[in-house]
Amino acid sequence: MSATNGHTSEGSRLKDPSLFNTKIVVGSRRLDSHSNKTFDVVYPGDGKTVIATIPECNAQDVNDAVASCRETFATFSQTTARQRSDMLRKLNDLTLANIDDLATLIVRENGKTRAEAVAEVKYASSFLAWFANMAEIGAQGETIAAANPNMRIHTMRQPIGVVACLLPWNLPLAMATRKIGPALAAGCTCIVKPAGETPLSTLAFAELVKRAGYPDGCVNVVTTLDNVAEVGKAICEHKHVRKVSLTGSTRVGKLIASQSAGTLKKLSMELGGNSPVIVMNDANLDKAIEGVLMAKLRTSGQTCVAANRILVQNGIHDKFLAALKEKIATYKQGDGEDDSVKLGPLITARAVEKCRAHVEDALSHGATLAYGPSPPPTPSSGGFFYPPTILTNLTSSMLISSEETFGPVVAIRRFETEEEALEIANDSDVGLGAYLFTTDLRIAARMTAKIETGMVGVNTGMLSACESPFGGVKESGFGREGSKWGMEEYQIIKAVTTDIS
Ligand SMILES: NC(=O)C1=CN([C@@H]2O[C@H](COP(=O)(O)OP(=O)(O)OC[C@H]3O[C@@H](n4cnc5c(N)ncnc54)[C@H](OP(=O)(O)O)[C@@H]3O)[C@@H](O)[C@H]2O)C=CC1
Ligand SMILES: O=C(O)CCCC(=O)O
């Protein structure tokens, strides 16, 4: 890669440069990898500036990190739920106190706009606050009415052990706290692997974990880009890792599941989506446009709940399209630090290429380009940008109907009846999010019950909140994050039976 090496000055962008960390975390130590190799983190906004050089880990680094997590688990698992609640509150205070620096790191490693990065830190913080509250509530056991009068049965909830948190690059800090927060609340210790593209916010967060007073080894971090196959396998096959939580693609989810089978780990899989949006004739047009743009363009279209197939009923189709074109034209694309910019770049040149391939495939199968450049642009040297694009006349035969695009491409399909919309929406191997716009409560009640996804937004383009269970069905995975169920994923239920005769 041709690169401008700018990372020596990168830390000076932060108010607290000591949050700019480029070493892995193993217990009290900040280390290079056993491999002595490194990889570069590149700023997606120009596609060439190297903002950090990070250790390329191998299986030995994983083993060291797990050993440290295991050693700490012996004592950390014995802390009280109230102590863990207090520690998480302190960690949340530190996260919010460093919101500007964390947002800067997210803008630089991911490319999203500063407003989005600040929103992400707040979202990340909400999981810490939520699980600080849940630490005590979620630790409660139950008394069971035993059939045998001589027996007393009660349950206790205990931390499952060392957990692995495998993070995506699209919301690097929020997905870190959505996993690390409940793990620490439950009394687990964590080996965290951020995505290779976005390790900096995780490494900064690990420093805050230390400052919050957590024992060394509660949160260890290993980093990799090119050696992810070896590192991922070492984590999944390690007998002392008892649980893996992944947010990533369905392809990688299947790999992790098969690699974890030999040690029968508990798994949480938050995988890819292909979210349908259904806009009914009676929808409030302003709300539908606002919701579609939110669901489509957040993080430049790179979320697993991004609207991928926009199904619009015939009676409102043309009005909807005209309003959408007008509104999308106001989305300025560019450098995330520019306040007037609403859309940042994509994460890599590969992501730009995926958008181009989806648009080209749709056009070759009869779609119409309603908005955006023609021909579809290829990755250029000026950053990983793909311009906002609207396609109409989407059909099932197009790639975009079966694969998430992960970019700012809005693909619209007409439908006539409620049944037809449901059939198209459910014609997918995955089922994570779905959105419905209607002002008729009867339609909403019927359709939300029949949509095959883990989450449905009605008259909103935003499904995500720390208090709401996040997760999917079908090949979007299993397990729920956030909410009152999120901590259970990191616990075992132990039943204790006592003979009192
Ligand atoms: N649900 C979600 O939030 C996400 C969905 N995706 C989907 O995947 C598509 C492709 O994106 P891309 O980044 O290439 O996706 P990949 O499937 O290559 O990677 C997704 C994540 O899994 C990690 N990973 C890859 N291989 C392994 C492995 N063998 N063991 C453990 N972890 C692994 C990656 O880490 P690393 O970056 O270090 O390679 C990354 O964090 C996107 O267009 C999108 O559709 C992608 C990311 C997040
Ligand atoms: O998997 C993702 O894309 C990240 C989660 C998005 C969200 O929480 O809204």
UniProtKB/TrEMBL annotation:
Pathway: Amino-acid degradation; 4-aminobutanoate degradation. The keyword Oxidoreductase applies. It comes from the Eukaryota. GO terms for molecular function: succinate-semialdehyde dehydrogenase (NAD+) activity. Residues 33-496 form the Aldehyde dehydrogenase domain. One of its GO terms (biological process) is gamma-aminobutyric acid catabolic process. The active site is at 270. Keywords: Oxidoreductase. The keyword Chloroplast does not apply. GO terms for cellular component: cytoplasm. Belongs to the aldehyde dehydrogenase family. This is Aldehyde dehydrogenase domain-containing protein. It comes from Pseudozyma hubeiensis (strain SY62) (Yeast).
